[in-house]
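#onboarding

Welcome to the new folks! Below is a worked example of what a typical request in this channel looks like: someone posts a single protein sequence, and someone else replies with the predicted structure as tokens. Don't worry about understanding the tokens yet, we'll cover that in week two.

Example request:
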Amino acid sequence: MNLNYTCTNLKGAIIVKIALIGATGFVGSYILKEAILRGHKVLAITRNPDKILMAPSVAVQKLDINDSETLVKTIIDCDIVIHAFAPPRSDSIEERIAKQTTGTKNII
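Example response:
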């Protein structure tokens, strides 16, 4: 899916390309719904693509955010990057902190 454009919707609101990292999580899933309702194009980045709320304006990318090179290539053409990533709750607290720290550094 080609998301390389910015335009306005029928109400004159600007439509942007949003890279949403963590699109299937608790917070990310609500952000995804709101972005769709507002008419934005969304690149939904997730560990679990089968959980994505699909819409014509949504492209899905399964991606490990620890792969910083691929992450940069994936989000480079987006207007906005939203970080809603959270490590799996099945991980220990130490693992979750480490993954959140590393993942956030890669996103920044």
